[in-house]
Specification:
The protein contains 23 helices and 19 strands. It is of the alpha+beta class. Strands 9, 10, 11, 12, 13, 14, 15, 18 and 19 form a nine-stranded mixed sheet that branches. Strands 1, 2, 5, 6, 7 and 8 form a six-stranded mixed sheet that branches. It has a two-stranded antiparallel sheet with strand order 3-4. Helix 10 packs across helix 11 and helix 20 runs parallel beside helix 22. The structure holds adenosine-5'-diphosphate and magnesium ion. The site of magnesium ion has 3 residues, from strand 11.
Length: about 725
């Protein structure tokens, strides 16, 4: 009987997956078509209501009583006119994916069901939902007697329509909290962290004489990497289906060594997939911008234009969903996992981050005047202080079983948090610390303000260093350690909170100096010298992949948590806890719950992989190996019968048999250890056992199987190989 992989190969050679019909579109015509945008709100809402809502959206605050009903009614009319049948609160629980529960707009018009329908969607329904939330992770916050959590509308992210072939649903972006008001999601702390950083940034702006800005937003642009493979392979690969990555599979004979994929011409079938993805993004008002091939074979990247953090993150969650569903439609399977193919580059997410005041000024833009520069340098000092003092918090924002394959594996930035500034900006800082004149080409541009001098900054400081986890790229920082499948919420919660905390300290230093009679310029200079001196050790412009950096970072006292479990153990350290609680981002109870949830998520992810490693090993790989052993043993017998006693057949057989029996033993050992780890008590203890006892054994099973894959008769191997899936 022919094995499934060989049958599939034949079938694929004969049947090219058909593509959805070609469809041309004009981005300008479809852009925002499915969004209840400010433009549509302005058209459909009474002027005063619109004004109040716009204020809530742009500068926070809460909605006036009674407005919710008016807004809900306008939303419902718009949605139903656009053929929506259902609505749902859409939220981001701690599962890592989004959640939704749909309700029809329609109810029977009478209890006797006389055949008529009424539509209903009140302000109350818009503002608050009560999903049965008892199955979402709560880390013990929600005991069963208070099992209900509730969702609440987030007016700062517009409602939108999601289309499927039979209808449309109105999505209401929402936060998700317990009955007692604790956050059970990732949006609530993000919104809180935005407020925290806004408050402290405004304090600094006021010192610089800015009386008009009403708030400060963090702006975020998220670059998303992903892999595409033919969907037909996935039916034969439960590992990809259930874990998002290959648990077995030897490296293909051609890797990425030729670097011929990066920025290469995009394959026609892939390009039409990308165009379809972008069309849906445009309809949802997501400003897709860049698309290209990435380094690894079958790897791609997509980036939209930056937006306020809350929106950018909602949009990235939607983008991941669109990538997955559109891939199916085009006969592909989209892998968002950080490391789908061992030996091949993994995927990350670059979180570009900056601060922007309500008047549109980027506070991380060096600017043109000495005063602008001085203000920029104060915010820059804030960033260095924030990253240096909150390395653990930031590292926590990048954890995940998948991302552990990447960080520190010389393809992604190391797990050590440092900041890349580039040579020019670094020498500006040096000159401030040493009070010497800047000695670069831009010396003639230096301008003096008051008694002290602040150098004018060179305009192009966007050197590229791909090995840094946190790089200044001209007018923003690029946080490069986030995993490709992860939500960017944790990264921005951490960045905003760390920044709020650092800016609060800096504002206090400036305020104190000014109160003691110093001029602003003197206060700024003195503060910059102090802060830059203290936090210079976090700046590193060299090669983050090098072994020397690991040693140097250690000398500088920068922490290096190589995996998720070791850093998660520090989530409840008082230094981490205080920053989050003091800035009003997470309460102690929320934080401890989160630590527990994240550990459990890690355990769950790895344990599924372990179980599948064992079952695929036993039911798919061992049988192929045993068949091949059987055939080889027949050859040995035949050789012996013919009197060729010491033939190579015997050596070959023995080597093969040794490998197969080692694999068999390794599977048994992994299975045993899994049972032991599962029976341990306490999340941290179980996570540690998982990391220390299961992952190395899982790797061992894989190493043996991958060696066998290159030996066993190709026609007996059932799992699609890298050569087939990636090229
Ligand atoms: P690269 O791959 O060279 O880093 P990309 O164009 O792929 O650059 O992505 C850069 C991302 O940074 C985009 O999403 C872009 O909109 C975003 N970005 C640009 N300026 C800012 C800014 N001031 N604040 C936040 N994000 C920004
Ligand atoms: Mg890019």
């Amino acid at each position: 009987m022919e094995n499934a992989r060989i049958a599939l190969k034949k079938d694929m050679a004969m049947h090219v997956e058909s593509e959805p019909a070609h469809e041309w579109y004009s981005p300008a015509k479809v852009y925002g078509k499915n969004v209840f945008s400010l433009k549509i709100m302005q058209e459909r809402l009474p002027k005063q209501v619109y004004k109040r809502l716009e204020k809530v959206i742009k500068t926070n605050g809460s909605l006036a009583e009674g407005d919710a009903d008016i807004i809900a009614s306008a939303m419902k009319d718009w949605a139903i006119e656009n053929n929506a049948t259902h609505y749902t609160h859409w939220f981001q629980p701690m599962t890592g994916v989004t959640a939704e529960k749909h309700d029809a707009f329609f109810i029977p018009s009478s209890a006797y069901n006389d055949g008529n329908l009424l539509n209903e969607f009140s302000g109350k329904m818009l503002v608050k939902g009560e999903p049965d939330a008892s199955s979402f992770p709560s880390g013990g916050i929600r005991s069963t007697f208070e099992a209900r959590g509730y969702t609440a509308w987030d007016p700062t992210s517009p409602v939108f329509l999601m289309e499927n072939s039979h209808g449309k649903t109105l999505y209401v972006p929402s936060i998700f909290i317990s009955y007692t008001g604790e956050s059970l999601d990732r949006k609530t702390p993000l919104l809180r962290s935005n407020e925290a950083v806004s408050k402290q940034a405004l304090r600094i702006l006021r010192l610089f004489g800015n009386t008009t800005a009403t708030n400060v937003h963090t702006m975020v642009g998220i670059e998303q990497e992903y892999f595409l493979i033919d969907r037909r392979f996935v039916s034969l690969r439960d590992d990809i289906k259930l874990c998002g990555r290959t648990l077995y599979g030897a490296m293909s004979d051609k890797g990425q060594e030729l670097e011929d994929h990066y920025f290469g011409a995009i394959n026609e079938r892939v390009l039409s997939f990308m165009a379809d993805v972008e069309k849906q993004m445009f309809e949802l008002g997501i400003p897709a911008k860049t698309r290209h091939n990435e380094v690894a074979p079958a790897q791609f990247e997509l980036a939209p234009v930056f937006e306020p953090a809350n929106l950018a993150i909602d949009h990235n969650m939607l983008t991941m969903q669109i990538l997955r569903t559109t891939a199916e439609k085009h006969g592909f399977y989209c892998l968002l996992h950080e490391k789908p193919f061992a030996g091949v580059n993994g995927s990350g997410k670059h979180n570009n981050w900056s601060l922007c005041d309500s008047e549109g000024n980027n506070l991380l833009d060096p600017g043109n005047t000495p005063m602008d520069n001085a203000q920029f340098l104060v915010f820059l000092a804030g960033v260095l202080k924030a990253v240096h003092e909150n390395a653990v918090l930031l590292r926590l924002a990048t954890i995940g079983a998948g991302n552990d394959h990447r960080l520190g594996a010389n393809e992604a930035p190391p797990a050590i948090l440092s900041v890349f500034l580039g040579a020019q900006l670094s020498s500006v800082i040096d000159s401030i610390i040493n009070d010497t004149e800047e000695n670069g080409d831009w010396k003639q541009d230096m301008l003096k303000i008051g008694v002290t001098s602040l150098p004018s900054l060179p305009k192009d400081v966007s050197d590229r260093n791909r090995t840094s986890p946190f790089a200044f790229t001209g007018n923003k920082f690029e946080f490069r350690a986030v995993g490709s499948s992860a939500s960017c919420a944790p990264a921005n919660i951490a960045l905003n909170t760390a920044m709020a905390n650092a800016l609060a300290d800096i504002a206090l230093m400036l305020e104190t100096a000014i109160a003691s009679g110093k001029t602003l310029t003197e206060a700024v200079h003195e503060t910059l010298v102090t802060v830059f001196k203290e936090h210079l050790p976090v700046v590193f412009n060299g090669n983050g992949y090098s072994a020397e950096w690991q040693a140097e970072a250690k000398r500088r006292g920068l922490p290096n948590y190589k995996d998720s479990v070791s850093v998660l153990a520090h989530y409840s350290d008082s230094s981490v806890m205080n920053v989050l609680t003091q800035n009003g981002v997470l309460s102690e109870r929320e934080l401890l719950a989160r630590q527990d949830i994240l550990l459990e998520n890690y355990i769950r992810d790895i344990h599924v992989e372990v179980k599948l490693t064992v079952s695929m090993g036993r039911s798919l790989i061992l049988p192929s190996c045993l068949r091949w052993l059987d055939e080889v043993s027949a050859l040995v017998l035949k050789a012996e019968k013919l009197g060729q006693t010491a033939g190579f057949e015997k050596i070959y057989y023995q080597n093969l048999q040794t490998l197969v029996s080692e694999f068999y033993a390794a599977l048994n050992e992994l299975d045993e250890e899994h049972k032991k780890a599962d029976s341990l008590f306490g999340a941290l203890v179980r996570a540690e056992a998982t990391k220390d006892n299961l992952i190395p054994r899982m790797n061992q099973c894989r190493a043996l199987a991958d060696t066998l894959e290159k030996i066993v008769d190709n026609s007996l191997w059932v799992l699609p190989k890298y050569n087939e899936m990636l090229w």
